[in-house]
Amino acid sequence: MAKDSFSKEERSEIVAAIKAAELQTSGEIQVHLENHCKEDVLDRAAHIFKVLKMHKTEERNGVLFYMAVKDHKFAILGDAGINKKVPVGFWDDIKESMMAEFKKGEITGGLKTGIQMAGEQLAAFFPFQKDDSNELPDEISFGKN
């Protein structure tokens, strides 16, 4: 299982990064980890996005960080509300920063960097609201493969 690729401490660090990022934005961030992705990574991420019901947020401002650990594939997928507001290439800097960490073997660090950057950038388009409710769980979800 992909869960076994991360220590309990690493998983806690990722969840803490999600919680910290969501303090800056009304956007919702989730991380889904699997070992393998046998299809196009964006197609798989879109499927997981639906399975996790991320498209059900009020402002359609969910962000999924999807990773197939053993296959070395990852994708960042934002919902329609985000993609309507952000400039073209919005996710590119985040992906590049994550890739730089991954190439150094820093998988947890790469995820944390991406989550932090997403939170900071989303804050400009979806600032945190005092009455904001956490619409999606902050816990990492794991695939069965």
From TrEMBL:
- Signal peptide location: none
Which superkingdom heads the taxonomic lineage of this protein's source?
Bacteria
InterPro entries given in the database record: TPM_dom
Q: Where is the TPM domain?
A: 4-120
Please identify the protein, giving its name as recorded: TPM domain-containing protein
- Please report the organism this UniProt entry assigns to the protein: Marivirga lumbricoides
